[in-house]
Amino acid sequence: MRDTTLLLTWDDAISCSSSQDVLVYELEVLVADRTVHYDKVSVTPDIMGQPHSWNWTSHLSFNCASHSVRLRSRFNNQTGPWKQEQIVPGTQKLRIKRVFPRDRVFEAGSRATFCCVVPEGQRFDRMYLSGYKGAEMNASRISERTYSLTLLLEQPSEVCVDVKCKTNVTSYGACTFIGYPPDDRDLQCETRDLKSVECSWTVGRPTHLSLKSQTHYQLLGRYNCRRCSQAIQFGAEERNWTLKAQNKLGSVELRDRADLTKRVHMFAPDALTASTVNSRSISLTWTWTVAQYHDLNITCQTHIHHSETNTMVESSGIGLKVVLLSDLIPHWTYSVTVRCATARHFWRWGDWSKSLIFQTLGDVPEALDVWMQMKENQTLVIWKKLLAHQSHGDIIDYEVTWTRSGEKDQQVKVSNGTENVTLSLSPGEEHIVTVTARNKHGSSPPSTVIVPSISPGRAAVNTSWVSGSGGGFSLSWPASPAASCGYTVDWSAASGAGTVDWLRVPPDQTSVSIVSGSFRDGWRYLLSVYGCTDGAPELLQRNEGYVRETIIEDDLFKSLKFQEQGSDVEISWDPLPLRELTASIQGYNLYYQDHKSSPHTVSTDDPHATSLTVKNLRKASYTFTVTAVTALGECGNASITATLNSQPDDVLWSVFVTFGAVFVLLSVTTVICYRQWACIKQKVYPPIPKPVFTEKFAAPSQYLVTDKCLHTEADILDVPELLYNPGEPQSDGVTSEDLQKALTPTLSSDDALRPPGVPSTVTSRDISNPSYNLALQTDAEPGWGPEGQTETGSPEGYRPQSRNEELPHSRMSLVSAYVSLPSSSQWSREL
Does domain 5-88 have CATH number 2.60.220.30? Predict the structure, then answer.
């Protein structure tokens, strides 16, 4: 009897042994004096008189509460009294503190009941499972000192789960294990050496009871083996094998039946060797450790691994132990392994052999992939670098040969590591360019590209915009009848940085998605589509775009210039290298603002613009900011601050003010001059003294009369004085005697006899004035008087007299305007 199972046995009464009717026994189970279970047992006449038994499993441990069973019989509607009550005492009368059951193993998903016996003098607090999730923990009272907790144990546990009981004084508990019964399956028995049998199976769901209740196995007369083996008499016959697995929660039995001659699991080939190695083939050999394998029909798999590539080769034969591998890469390292199985009755593949590493011999390189790009007057011939599995050895150099019709081939060698060459070819003719690679085993097959001629009337192909997506570009183009051998798509950075790459496309395909590890965000790329023809490639389409645009950094416009044009201001900048920018520019915005107003904007959608103009600005200090408009927003900000000069209205006002000031100044000057005119006239036009003659230059005073009617005070000018020294030569060769003659009147006989007081008849031509004559001959211009006035422009109507004109009042007249004679004192000093 376990601590939760009741087993009750009894015998029939002697009086019932001869009865021919069914006898019924009634049973009741009482826990802590409360009926918890009722059952009936029927006894037929054929078993009447034999011992009877009945069992029942309680959900509660017997240690938790007293259990009792009572029995009575019922026959022909007559019921007997309850008899022989069996009592299983609990522990409530013991001075203990425990949780029951202890160290019990439960199956996950089952319901379990635990009880807590509280010591005398203590008060129950609660029950719970320590560290266990998902269980509802509501305890119920069984008796005065006993409490129970019923739980659904959903989760298995590799370690024990502690059931805790807590009182007002202390806490204590019991360890419980939760797991599963064995779940082993798929028993299979086979032979490897054709002398013994080996059986194996699959372990299903884990039991989680390795600490408390390990699973015990029994197979082929052996215990607890996971792969059991047994020597047998080998023959072509079927046999049976049985496996039994058991733990505290249950057991399972597995059976298998097979003919071992059809279940041969081969060992791995031994001593794998590369017997013959060539550049593109190799022979593999191995041996067998089981002699019986030489008589079997065997199929083998050879796994060939190189770089990131795996290949499987199958071969078969009786006792197979040699295989030939072909189509290998020259100068390449391989790793191979082999496994085999029976071909007639295939059961399963055998074990893999140890890995064998070998290297093939070298060979000439493969043909190069050659392309070209034409840039102005030069042609860039480029080729893709051969990969390690294409070079078949270390590349020494490249040979580039080009020619045109009627000319001798030209050749140049390019060292390894350089995969391009720039040629200066005549643009008017086609050229055939051939490139080969060379290693120590020889040269590769020639690769040819035809460089087309560029005629002056050749139609240009427009460049269209393409947007990148998914880290690359998606291109499509119309089919071309001339593209007999397909298409070539090439791409390169528009700025010229980076390398050129290309892709070959078959003739039936007119679209492609280009994804390259060399693509960079913020780089503009040129993509071209060429048709492959029998001659030179034909350009069909050209595109330009970004894989992904990025924000242009600030200070894009590094050369902002400010120019004022009246009330307008022009902000200009140097042309931007659009192909070097990290985003496509769609236009420009110019923001301007002074310290008193909010920002204003002028814009343009021309990406090639280099200036923007703001009109009708007033005089102030402004900040001008230029931004580039892209799909990502405005970026590349650059600013300049400038102060506007005076505007036209201010200039005119300044002019008017200046003229007004000048007018006022002139008016004041005029008034002052008018009031001080006498002083000014004295300073500017002093009066000319009349000539005074001394004895040496005597003449009747009546002969020196000034013609006052011909001159006014305004006509008086300062003229040079004539200084006379007797005997001293005068300018222009005139002596004092000549002057004395000139000033001495010549009297005719009539004048000598004329009485005193009668006017003389001397004419002006009889008197010569050297200074006046000199002035007329040298300085005077025709039509001008001695004072620079015209004959008709004199304010007094002055007109110079001719030499033949007689003086009105004297026979001799000296015009004071022309000659200023010294005073008598001065004359005396000079003489």
Answer: no
CA distances from 813 to 238, 702, 767 (A): 181, 9, 8
Task: Provide the H-helix boundaries in 381-489.
Answer: 388-391
Which CATH class, in words, describes the domain spanning 185-262?
A: mainly beta
Averaged over 437-446, what is the pLDDT?
96
Global pTM reads 0.55
pLDDT tens for residues 73-103? 888 778 888 887 777 766 545 556 689 998 8
Answer for the pair 519, 547: CB distance below 8 angstroms, yes or no. Answer: yes
Beta strands in 169-212, from DSSP E residues, in sequence order: 171-179, 185-190, 196-202
Exposed/middle/buried for residue 811 (C-beta within 10 Å: 0-12, 13-18, 19+): buried
> So where are the chain's domains?
5-88, 98-179, 185-262, 270-359, 370-451, 463-546, 561-644, 683-831
The more confident residue out of 542 and 95 is: 542
Alpha-carbon torsion (51, 57, 61, 65), positive or negative: negative
- Half-sphere exposure at residue 194, Cβ-oriented, CA atoms within 13 angstroms: 14
Residue-level pLDDT at 325? 95
* Distance separating alpha carbons of residues 190 and 196, to the nearest angstrom: 8
How do beta strands 104-107 and 171-179 pair? parallel
